[in-house]
Amino acid sequence: MVSELDLPSNPTPEQLEILQKYLKVQSKSSDGSNGYGRQNYYIDKTEIIPKKLIIFRHKQKKKDVYYMRFYVGNKKYKTLSLGTSDKTLATERSLERWRTLQNQIEVGGVVFECSTEESIDHYLGHLKDLVETEQIKKLTLTCKRTSLKKLRVYLQDHQKPSEIPPNVLEEYTKWRRSKNWDKKKHPNNPKPPTDQTINRELCDFKGYFDWMKKKKMYVREVEYPFLKIDHKRSVEKNPSFDVDDWRSIVYYMRTWVRKNENRKEYGIFYRTIFCEFLKVLANSGLRPHEALKLRWTDIKLKKKEEVEYRSSKSKQDSSLDQTDESKIVRERLIAHIEVSPDTKTGRRLVICPAGVYFRRIRNLYKDKTGSFPKPNYYIFMNIGTTHSKKMDFVGKALSTDHLRKLWYELMEDLKVDKDIHFTNHYTMYSCRSFFINQRLEMGVPPNYVAKLVGHSIKTMERHYENIQLKNLEPELVEVRKKKLEEADFQTYDLELG
Fold first, then answer.
1. How far apart are CA 440 and CA 397, in angstroms?
2. Where is pLDDT greater, at 97 or 201?
């Protein structure tokens, strides 16, 4: 029977100090239940390096494997599993890991490290903080998060940052284009990641490792196997439409929106919006994600009269070289577009004759919802769906994935219904390339086009190198302008500026 201790009800500070010392001494000599803090949990303890490194088997562990315990300074020790019950092998592993960790300590690295997965999560948290403080854009975070998803998978064999070798990325390109890319899973994208895509991912990885080094979570110099870019090929990644191919797409879209299998409540509506979306891209040079960020407050529509004089020979006397001029006035709707600053190239003004499509989109939403969109509404807005069980996305911008799916459907239906197989692998970005090429081929100065699309002059020159000089001939320009106008491509702004 344990007798009660005679303790003061209101102990003085001196008495409390004595009591704390007593408890500290007793805890060290106590026979506690777990055995930690004493040497009695050691089995087959062997000192490898005096007062610095020992190996042992744990009395209370089910697995009969060896552990290493080593001094890391500041009265601290670290214990690691060696993953083997063979003492000789355990000794070799303990020395190897001890040397690695000692080197890490000497250069200022951490020993009590988090996992590789956790380090990536910490880095993403750091990037989110940069977004909140407006040091980077939200789009930048989205792109880096996508790259880091690949890195998570690639580094899954390296549980700790300290286990990552400097040449870890040596085989990344091969892995990315083979094990990480399956043609069967990408039927609409038959080509593996381009050199440009891989280089962008490597740049994102460099940001991660540089941050780790700054935080002393990783102390090695990583090697980055950047690929040499063929800039001519990079321009051809999203090839411009051939004029006749663009006409085929536009003509087919006029009936495609109402295909029998697409008569669900919102099916026809979103297909119709998607067709107008493509026309906006082709007539403005906007990137798809730039167009999706647009709100009605970002658009100003201005009417502009286009005057055209047509001449014809006098009907009274055809032998006379006289002409009668008829004046044709046509109204154009010019769109002044303020591209959101939260995009790849930041805020810029785009002036183009795509106003007719914006007016049409506005009326489509009015017919579907019963009222015109409010000024702060997204131009390409989700108003409901027949496919989703939830309405979480109503009021938000349509997703790139949704529109990309419609693009693939359009391309596939062209093959099935019209037996049209394009030689080039067109994408939604081809609308932007189409805009650039048509402006350049019709004589618009490259620096003017560069400002419109948010490109550097250097990039624009690469586009210019790819166009055919014969397409610059005035006779061909006039013929092409007529074709383009028939296929919902406005040419009026070619004379602006």
1. 32
2. 201
